[in-house]
Amino acid sequence: MTNADPRELLKFSELAHRWWDPHAEFKPLHELNPLRLKWIDSQARLAGKRVLDIGCGGGILTESMTLLGAQVKGIDLSTEALGVADLHSLDSGVAVEYEEIAAEALAAREPGTYDVVTCMEMLEHVPDPAAIVVACATLVKPGGWVFFSTLNRNLKAYLFAVVGAEYIARLLPRGTHDYARFIRPAELAAFARRANMQPDQFGGITYHPIGKQFALSSDTSINYMLSCRREA
C-alpha cells in the first residue's frame, strides 16, 4: 500500500491550480521558501549537486534549488500538483524533472543516487512518517544531506499552527493540518538515527505577524527544520 492519505492528496490536488499564486492558499509557502532555501544551501552548497525534492507539490522549492545551480528532481503523488509544476517549469524556463512516484518506490529503484534529499512540509501529512525518513536515507548517497521540515506536537503548536493560522489569521485553509500527526523533534531525530542518519542541526521557524515575515530561530516549539547526514 502507498504511504499516503487519499484525503490529504485530494485536499492539495483541489488547490493545485493556485500553487503559484503568492496571494492565495499557498502564500505561506512562498513567504517561507527563501528562508528554508537559504538554510539548506548554507549547509549542503546546492550548486552542482544532484537533488531530490520529495513531496514537491507545485515546485516552489524545487525550482528555487535549480536556480542555485542544482540538478533537481521533484516527486509527488498528486497528478494535479505535478501538472502545475510542469507547466510552471515550462513557463519560467527553469528545467526541473518531475515524476509521480512514492518515495519508497523511488528508493527501491534509485538507492544512493542523490547528494541532497529534501522533504519539507510533508511528514505531518502521511500515515507513516518514519517510512518516509527511511526512504530519504536510502535515496541519499553516503555522506549526503537530508533535510526535513515539519510541525512540533504540543499545545503551543496546536494553538498557533492550527487555531491561529487556520481559524483566526486564516493564513491557511481550515483542515490543512491534523494535530495528531505533528512530530516532536526528538521523535524525528530518532527516526533519522534508526535510518542510519546522524541529525546535524535543528532550525526553528518563527512568524512575526506585524511584519508578516518568517525568521530562523532556536525556537523549535512550532515549525522546525532538521538537517541530517547519512552515515558513510
TrEMBL record:
It holds the Pfam family Methyltransf_23. Keywords: Methyltransferase, S-adenosyl-L-methionine, Transferase, Ubiquinone, Ubiquinone biosynthesis. The keyword Transferase applies. Transmembrane segments: none annotated. GO terms for molecular function: 2-polyprenyl-6-hydroxyphenol methylase activity; 3-demethylubiquinol 3-O-methyltransferase activity; polyprenyldihydroxybenzoate methyltransferase activity. It is an enzyme of class 2 (transferase). It catalyses: a 3-demethylubiquinol + S-adenosyl-L-methionine = a ubiquinol + S-adenosyl-L-homocysteine + H(+); a 3-(all-trans-polyprenyl)benzene-1,2-diol + S-adenosyl-L-methionine = a 2-methoxy-6-(all-trans-polyprenyl)phenol + S-adenosyl-L-homocysteine + H(+). One of its GO terms (biological process) is methylation. It comes from the Bacteria. Its EC number is 2.1.1.222, 2.1.1.64. SUPFAM superfamilies: S-adenosyl-L-methionine-dependent methyltransferases. The keyword Methyltransferase applies. Pathway: Cofactor biosynthesis; ubiquinone biosynthesis. S-adenosyl-L-methionine binds at R36, G55, D76, M120. InterPro entries: SAM-dependent_MTases_sf (IPR029063), UbiG_MeTrfase (IPR010233). PANTHER family: METHYLTRANSFERASE, UBIQUINONE BIOSYNTHESIS O-METHYLTRANSFERASE, MITOCHONDRIAL. O-methyltransferase that catalyzes the 2 O-methylation steps in the ubiquinone biosynthetic pathway. Belongs to the methyltransferase superfamily. UbiG/COQ3 family. HAMAP family: UbiG. This is Ubiquinone biosynthesis O-methyltransferase. It comes from Pararobbsia alpina.
